[in-house]
Amino acid sequence: MWAIISKLKNKIRNFRFAKSLRFRIFFIVFLVGIVPCYILSEIILGSYEKRAVDHRTSEVQHQCTVLADHLFTSDYLNDVSNEVVTTELEEVSNIYDGRIMVVDAELKVIRDTYSISQGKYMIAEEVVRCFQNKESTSNYDDRNNFIEMTTPIVSSETGDIVGVMLTSVSTESIAATLRLLMIRIQYFMIAIIIIVLLTSFTFSRMLILPFSNLSRAMGEVKEGFDPDRLSLPDYTEMEALSEAFTHMLSEIRHLEDSRQAFVSNVSHELKTPITSIKVLADSLNMQEEVPNETYREFMQDIAAEVDRENKIINDLMTLIKLNKEAPDTLRRENVDIEKLLEDIMKQIHPIADSRGIELILEVVRPVVAPVDKTKLSGAITNIVENAIKYNIEKGWVRVSLNSEPSFFTIVIADSGIGIPEEEQPHIFERFYRVDKSHSTEIDGTGLGLSIARDAILLHDGAIRVESENGEGTTFTIKLPR
Ligand code: ADP
């Protein structure tokens, strides 16, 4: 059981190894080095063998044709006592380490240089075919190392075949040369394999080195090293990779920083009203005889602080909800924007009236657009409320609506205290409040604009602020139709 498990583990480990880039490079370089060498050696051996056999065949064939002529002219087929021809036959068969059989028209072997089949009948297929086709044949048997050929003995008078010479010659010498060549090639291949192994090992190591360096540098960055150390200009691709990693890292760090800033802001903002409540309650507790008015006054202050805490929590919850939502979760419906603005103004009128601020609504071109009514009206309300909050006594707030073919704009301008230029880029940040002296006088959480901007971005819109310190502020909201 354990043996099987360890075998399986090994297999998986092997598989992981095969997945490594280094192994693949090693394998490819190895293949590219070895396979052509192997193919080349096979081609060389094959072509040598073919050439050698062809050469031997044509040489023997030529000798046999000459012999066949002699056989006919000396009338050897009818009288085998001709010593000259017999010696000639023997010589040729000795030179080529072979055997020659002379077969007459009755398929009878009249001469065999081995003297084994003499007098017997030869009905071999090649012999019969040679009689029929009147042409020589040759057949190479590479397993038993011989070439067998037939040569017709043709009558020079009639042109008829009067007999066939069946010759077989040994190719042992060719095979021996082949074996020698093979041994040499094997040595050569072993040398090549060793060289290729070493080359591919070094090559794969060299190619993979930048990757190992990068992953080591990434590891060090993870442990808190400077991300600049990631700039390894080895390959362009690696540069892109390390750049992407550095970018991602700084994004993560930025996210982490802003998360921490957000948490500490939240705790601070939530703590402030509670501290006030505690101070108010303690001072009430410490006094023995508290007059009714003081008691009431303190309780009103405590209630105001509770309201403030409540507002912060509500704003936070809205913000978190907006951030969690994807644009496709917007509950869009066709909304008459003029009507929406009128409703907001109606709702806010009492606050404006209490400070003698004039509210003006200007509609240049009305528009009906698919928006999330609740979210958009929340965002606009917040901006209009700000325009009243940060305004001067008897000032004005003007809301105007205009539309173009593909988008519409809502402009909220006021005659208020304005925002200093250097503060303008920050006003959409969470908990950001301009000028802390105002923030003690004017109630607010610093979350309103952040919520408004998130709602507008969810609608694929944009918001811009223009302001002159002491002169007034204009917010421009641009939304697609
Ligand atoms: P708050 O709850 O403080 O109003 P906001 O996020 O709505 O928070 O606004 C952020 C800050 O931007 C405010 O504290 C205020 O200083 C400034 N601000 C916003 N609107 C106006 C405006 N219309 N005029 C002047 N200052 C403004």
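^ adenosine-5'-diphosphate complex. The mean pLDDT is 89. The first strand starts at residue 98 and ends at 104.
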